[in-house]
Queue: 4 jobs
Job 1
Amino acid sequence: MDVEALTAQMDRDRASGDAPVMVVGTAGSVGTGAVDPLPAIAAACRARGVWFHVDGAYGGVAAQVPGAPADLVGLVEADSVAVDPHKWLYAPLEAGCVLVRDPENLRAAFAYHPPYYRFGEHATDFLELGPQNSRGFRALKVWLAFKQAGASGYRQMIGDDMRLSRMLAAAVAAHPSLELGTQQLSITTFRYVPDELCGELTGEARDRALDLLNHALLDRLQRGGETFVSHAVVGGRTLLRACIVNFHTTEADLTALVEIVVATGRRIEAELRARRPHATH
Ligand SMILES: *Cc1c(COP(=O)(O)O)cnc(C)c1O
């Protein structure tokens, strides 16, 4: 997020009679794990009396890990934060969670008292805290895992995932047939680049050819069943995306991933060449 553009927009809105009510910052974007300048956004919101929410669905929990992006410290200033224990807290699907600084805000927003609901003072009345009343006990699996791993266990596991992601980025950067896109938190993006193509095409034509090739590669990898990567679009380019959020992932898995991606890429290249015998790419 461009904080200068944000503040300018909020001030323009105010001046024209509109009332900005909330800003949502991102602590770990879906595609690349990018973290917004959360402390600066928090300051801009506080100065204008605007609610500051952070989408930390994936990356929020990395804040506690040494070596995490410094901007994550801005989470402490948020009015509300969304986190998904089913992502980097390793809980089985699904367990979404919203944390609010002042729980009374939830009561003020959601509480209502129809005559057919009367739970009394002794129980936590979820009807007053959100849109959902009847609900399963999702919190149990999150609580149990915390009991088992503890905060230190989580710090260890999340830190390991980030370290593995950086190792993958290094392996990709060192490989002649792969091109590194981004590495942030535990997400590494990259693409397969055949040697031949590099020499023949440049600029936009090269990017479009690589987009097509990597789309085909993504599809083949996902159907193949050996490894699973998703994709990210970064600066208009299609990249393969490896997001490590499993504490069972090891260095050997990353070595295998690189080998499988390159071998599959070569196979697709060969097929393309066989199908178009007169084309050189
Ligand atoms: C996964 C994700 C979401 C969506 O969350 P779900 O609860 O899994 O549907 C929203 N924002 C970010 C940044 C995410 O990574």
Job 2
Amino acid sequence: MTYFRDNIDAMTAYRPGEQPEAGAGIIKLNTNENPYPPSPKALAVLRDFDGELLRRYPHPLAEQFRRTVAGVLSVPVDWILPGNGSDELISMIARACASSDRPIVCPVPTFEFFLTQGQIQQAGPVEVPFDDQYNLPVEQLAVAAGAVTFVANPNSPSGTAAGNGQLGELAKRLSGILVVDEAYVDFADSHAVNLVRKHDNVIVLRTLSKGYCLAGLRLGFAVANPSLLEGLLKVKDIYNVSALACAVGAAAFDDQQHMIANVEKIKAARTKLTGELKELGFRVWPSQANFLLVRPASGEAEAIYQSLKDRGILVRYFKGPRLEDKLRITVGTDEENAALVEGLREVLRT
Ligand SMILES: *Cc1c(COP(=O)(O)O)cnc(C)c1O
């Protein structure tokens, strides 16, 4: 006897990375948070926030944030749909578009939450393998003919990215929706917002969790033409973005200068860390994100993960296929990265 649908009983829940308490003295390089504080302008809005705005319901479309985003990206306001993190938008897209005869397709390994959505909707999911270099398998994805094809670009956990040529080709060949999840795009060389203008089946997803140092705020948005967003609006929770997230997020997104300066620091650290890890014998996949997928020469990734954890350094270990010999390491501050490299030296010596 169960209270749940059969497919819910059969599935395993998405497992988030470990979150030790703040101030526990752990070097946390496991969930791709930004190591730097958010924009001072966003923090000023938070400090001065009017309690009266919490008594009332917020704008159902987070209008202030939506307008700010539209202005910065130079797209019309009605091409933007804010969400309670981009996770919520992923779930809305799945609910609106996917079912047993309308599959979710994605290249794998990737962000597991896409697969979770497929299981909830009984819509596959159909997994199309990346090759060892993580080239986007355009042909196989087109043939799989998803109602929704999710491509994280840059991809997690690989950090690799496809160009707009390939994404555009895929959009053209699909009769369903192509979702380009740009959670890490602030650290990348290019973005796909132009594809939204060219192809009426493309949705770009963004978040303030990574590039804008606001993972705890829970704020993201979709960019797509209004006829696509219309379907998503039907499944949207009524007041999905809090008044606080809307106001703080608008100030943060408006402060592009802060975001860019911060991202430049992380990109420089990424280059340095890549070199250091290669010197320690790791294979490092080329990353356009704020993390690195690495394979230790021994392939003993789980043991290294555990030894680092014993030393107070958390990185991400995925037990899944093709990842059991690899680690995903978030790029931290220079001090955190130095501690990681020192920890790895010790671990590899013993
Ligand atoms: C972090 C991440 C997200 C989630 O972003 P939120 O806005 O915090 O929900 C979405 N997609 C990928 C690939 C991510 O890594």
Job 3
Amino acid sequence: MSDRRFATRAAQAGLRADLGTGAVVPPIHPSTTFERDPDGDYPRGYVYGRQGNPNRAALEETLADLEGGAAGVAFASGLAACAAVLRALPPGAHVVLPQDVYHGLRALVAQRLVPAGLQASAADLTRPGALEAALRPNTRLVWVETPSNPLLGITDLDRTCALAHAAGARVCVDNTWATPALQRPLEHGADLVVHSTTKYLNGHGDVTGGVVVGREADVEALRAEQVLGGAVPSPFDCWLTLRGLRTLAVRMRAHCEGALAVADFLAAHPRVKAVLFPGRLDHPGHAVAARQMSAFGGMLSVRVRGDAMEVAGRLRIFRRATSLGGTESLVEHRASIEGPGTQTPDDLLRLSIGLEEPADLVADLDAALATRARVHP
Ligand SMILES: *Cc1c(COP(=O)(O)O)cnc(C)c1O
């Protein structure tokens, strides 16, 4: 990592003058194969598209740099990145997952990895004492998501890493929601960081991707999962994600500012039961979040009185869609998208605050919450 500050490094993510043309923005290399020298060597390091590609290498280097890690390994989706970390665990290993872990990861573990021999248990890692109780002699990994989805729970990274390491376990942090612009888990002792780059890192809702960042040796072990598992991102997707990264620092500032304005508005509204946002003083994780994040992010959840789906249906600027981290604000009724067995309250709406003028978002919510809507207290 260079000594330049985050925003400076992000603004020039992957920009390297092209030796052939002088182009400032790098070209896209769609080629699936790369030529050998007459003596059979591959002096430029690239052989075949699944094994390696210049656009993917640039993305991996950049993400490692932004997270403060030694190396990165990119995947075709965030869940493929998560799966690589869990599949690389030794047979019979136990993993501790947060209680409100990303629902796709919960399904992956329950439906694919536990039947294949992984041991897993869930713990409320936002609560002191919960991790101690969940650790077993064969615990190899503690999985952390902070802020969590969709309850915005905050897990203390310093504390969790110290406890896990004392028990001989590694820590992997899903940093999708905070992004390295706001929180860098490796600086708090985490061993691995995963991202769904689909969200804030690409930031424009037009690429599905994932990455794992960590120490050189750990990432090398995951490269086998990438190259042999084959869930590699396309050169164009890597190029687009790098383009998105160049505006990450400035986008995150605007997302944070908008989320704070919306959270404060909602907290004062009579139809609102609770606002779940770590930037508010009344959030139980506020002090920890203030210590480990430089700002509180662009995501919040709100619990409303009455029919949450109806409130979502009355919004005009917020789009009703899943996902997060794009330029456009999104509203989502999590319980119905997660389906049967969800632990998410039915009155909860998750908001991804985009880059619109915060006053317009507040006005949109104000109109949707207007009391002429039916209220069932
Ligand atoms: C979206 C998301 C994932 C999964 O990423 P995909 O790119 O959809 O595979 C994992 N973790 C978190 C926190 C997410 O928001």
Job 4
Amino acid sequence: MKTLLPDLLLLLLLFLFLSPSSATTGRLILDFILPKIGSGTARPWNLSFLPDVSTSSKPGSKDSDLISALPGQPKGVVARQYSGYVPVDEKAGRFFFYYFTESKKTVNASEIPIFMWINGGPGCSSVGSGAFLEHGPLVVAPGGKAVAESSHAWNQFAHVLYVDSPVGTGFSYSDTPSDYQNYNDATVAADNLRFLVNWLARFPEYAARKVYLGGEGYAGNYIPQLAQLIHNRNRAGKYPAINLKGLILQNVILDADEDRWGFFDHLWSHGMLSQRMYDNIEKYCIKNSTRKGCIAVAQRTGRVVAPLYMFDLTAKICRLSEITTPRLPVDEYYECQEEDVAAYLGLPEVQRALHVNPSKAPKKWIQCNSNVAKAYGEITNSTLPILKNLLSNNISVLVYSGDANSVIPPMSSRLSIRKLNLSKTVPWHGWYPSKIDLGGYSEGYSEGLNYATVRGAGHFVAKTKGTQLQFLLGVHLNGTLANSTIPAVV
Ligand SMILES: *[C@@H]1O[C@H](CO)[C@@H](O)[C@H](O)[C@H]1NC(C)=O
Ligand SMILES: *[C@@H]1O[C@H](CO)[C@@H](O)[C@H](O)[C@H]1NC(C)=O
Ligand SMILES: *[C@@H]1O[C@H](CO)[C@@H](O)[C@H](O)[C@H]1NC(C)=O
Ligand SMILES: *[C@@H]1O[C@H](CO)[C@@H](O)[C@H](O)[C@H]1NC(C)=O
Ligand SMILES: *[C@@H]1O[C@H](CO)[C@@H](O)[C@H](O)[C@H]1NC(C)=O
Ligand SMILES: *[C@@H]1O[C@H](CO)[C@@H](O)[C@H](O)[C@H]1NC(C)=O
Ligand SMILES: *[C@@H]1O[C@H](CO)[C@@H](O)[C@H](O)[C@H]1NC(C)=O
């Protein structure tokens, strides 16, 4: 069965390419992760791995990274924003691009934590997705020429750091061409650690803050691996110790064995695949598979699901040509936002304001660079052993999924974390204190692990359900999610 998967998924992907949506993350995840499993390019993660992070680079000045204002930014947005490049290997000329937004919170300012966010892919920009589409203070407004203030920005409770990782993603680059060919989980985790250490050297006032790491999609590998390196580094007594408190994992790959079939399961359980099709997938690809039979079934299945927007089965599909009247820049969901983010970040005046290096930046800004995924070598097939280790060291973990996301569906995450065998403390229940909207369900485990779904959300949870998500993070961080007894409203 294992050897069939690469062909099966590659074929399926050919059909996904025909999807009317321009979104690429889901395709990358399917194209990228699943074929590697069982093909000898996946292996367990070395829990004691600690790369050399010694760096002779000067920390650089945060003053030159201060953003005076972004084009089309509404007046009166108080929080300071910074962006620019931090070296991960100065000799190689390898730099990560970041966008940092200070918190709007003013009470107990010295206790406000740092949230570092990385999108997945591999090759998808955190600045483009995490910041300007999902939970940054400013989201790109319809038309792609201005930004609007977001009502559900995470900088209402944290200082948020968005990082384009690895090089080739967003505005991050390297002067060494081979850096674009040599990606794997170990090199990326090492670069992410070097980035964070060097960033904290540039922003020393935050060096002792509580740190939370978050991400989505393939960051289900990046984030636990970075966390493990931070933990190992702290244990080795390196300065400064990073005060890592928790992980926030959104629609993530955790265990490829579960995730690879979740895709079909989710479509079937949402009435998107006929029973016969699902039975055939099970029969020809899962139970008693033959190469030929499985490929034929996958082709047929791929044709049926091609028109769906896999990131969000309930969302409207963007058809730019049908949007005739420019809308007011308001902070609310509309379906062509991903296209508008790409338009906005492609504007020369926006790039100037963000301190993008024009001689290094890609000619055309793209949300997801498929070359990164293509060049990405060995992956780790499961990050569950890492999570288990982190949990036993008091690092909390929240895993949540939008229940309309088909790319990495909620049930596969739930089944994955059940493999951790932690005692369950609280069963499913509804939460979110609103009479009109059920926020989702959660499941609490021991040792600081929570699992939750966000009802009606897709892959980019904050894009459609930002308020619910903010509430979810609040109760998780307060340590009350598992025991919150707000009854479900259905
Ligand atoms: C990961 O893959 C390697 C090599 O294929 C295999 O030996 C190992 O058991 C797998 N680990 C998990 C957790 O699936
Ligand atoms: C795991 O990492 C440690 C520390 O970097 C290293 O000494 C050890 O050789 C690695 N083990 C394997 C099996 O790669
Ligand atoms: C501010 O910090 C103090 C001391 O840690 C705490 O008692 C208080 O509740 C905090 N106030 C707010 C509004 O978080
Ligand atoms: C799979 O099907 C083939 C042909 O129908 C049969 O010969 C074989 O024994 C089956 N294998 C299993 C594991 O059921
Ligand atoms: C985790 O935190 C608890 C309570 O704060 C403490 O008793 C325990 O020693 C900590 N464990 C580790 C491994 O740090
Ligand atoms: C979390 O705790 C803080 C301080 O006690 C409180 O102000 C806030 O409302 C809580 N958030 C949620 C979502 O429960
Ligand atoms: C949640 O409830 C369980 C079982 O009643 C209890 O053991 C645990 O301490 C509670 N956790 C919190 C954070 O209140």
